[in-house]
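If you are new to this repository, start here. Below is one unmodified record pulled from the training split, so you can see the exact layout before writing a loader.
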Amino acid sequence: MDGDGSRSLDELLDANVGADDPSVVDLLTTGSMEVHGRMPWSSNGTFLVTVREGDRRCQAVYKPEAGERPLWDFPPGLWRREVATWRLSHRLGWPVVPPTVERSGPIGVGSVQLFVPARYEEHYFTVVADEAQRRPLEQICLLDLLCNNTDRKGGHVLVGVDGRLWGIDHGLNFHEEPKLRTVMWDFAGDPVPDDLLDSVAALGRADLAAELGDLLTPEELDAVAERIDAVVAHRRFPTDPTGRRVPWPMV
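And here is the target side for that same chain:
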């Protein structure tokens, strides 16, 4: 990690507000932000920060629009898609995306997502056979279908230090054209659990507009609604007969 070279990551991690704390969204949104440095292995500008307000504090990942590299198929403002993915997962009641908010920071407007200390040697491929992890994996997989995730690598599934699973890196979600690319094909053809389907079916177009209308275009919102209809109609996780709908690298 660039910056703060005299301090290790362990020394920088000093949080007393976690993902399940009801105040975490307010803290991420309004707390003062101290940038520690750039996160390694990120193609765009991605920074580890500490957010503080009074005696409350947490670490977060700050992705400013100013740090994005231009893409031919996505407009600037990938951070909006990060925020939209969390909002959708939160609305569905699936706690598999760290709390993520829109805000301005030292490098301009962007997304700020709660940092999750993780077992970084683990990822999707090391946990997919663990039956105890099937439920959150199904939620992440189904969320990716709804969000049209174009880049679900194995390393974008984190295993927290407490064993909890998280999906991260959602800046390439919500394209209006079908662009699903994912490593999560192990559920292909399996029935989607009824209660997950019920949560999806309960999302109406008005709900989508209220949750995501300030972040996505009308065409992207229509595409989300169409994917919802398809998931509810088919009731099974899709298959990939081509074998080509995978990102590269896979981890």
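Two things worth knowing about this chain: The chain is about 30% helix and 15% strand. The two ends are 20 Å apart (CA to CA).
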